[in-house]
Amino acid sequence: MAAPEKLTTTVSTKGQVILPSAIRKRREWGAGTRLLVEDTPEGVLLKPAPVFAETRPEDVFGSLPHRGRPKTLEEMEAGVLAEARRRHARD
């Protein structure tokens, strides 16, 4: 197996680094791609930043208001079935 090609770049006076084209293409990192920068013992690690912030269920639970009594499991299943039939009837 061939050794991976060693690529180099230079830090500008503004602290900017240009990633080699081969890496940008392989990773599909176009202009405007947001990257997380992590300092590790081996060097600097770049990873694509998540599109959305990480959320836990308890952070968003109950975010949509509901008035009235809670639906029973049977009522929810009937509602899902009715919507599936309605959508299927359109096809």
* Spatial strand sequence of the major β-sheet: 1-2
Helix content: 25-40%
The SSE string, one letter per element, is HEEHH
- Quaternary state of the chains: single chain
* Principal-axis shape: elongated
Low-confidence stretches: none
Number of helices: 3
Beta strand %: 5-15%
- Radius of gyration, whole Å: 25 Å
> What's the overall average pLDDT, rounded?
89
Number of strands: 2
Structural class: alpha+beta
Biggest sheet architecture: 2 strands, antiparallel
Distance between the termini: 53 Å
Would you spell out the secondary-structure blueprint of this structure?
Layout lengths: L20 H7 L7 E6 L2 E6 L8 H4 L12 H18 L1
Verbal overview:
- It is a single chain.
- The protein has 91 residues and is of the alpha+beta class.
- It is built from three helices and two strands.
- The chain has a two-stranded antiparallel sheet with strand order 1-2.
- The termini are far apart.
- The mean pLDDT is 89.
Attribute tags:
91 residues; alpha+beta; 3 helices; 32% helix
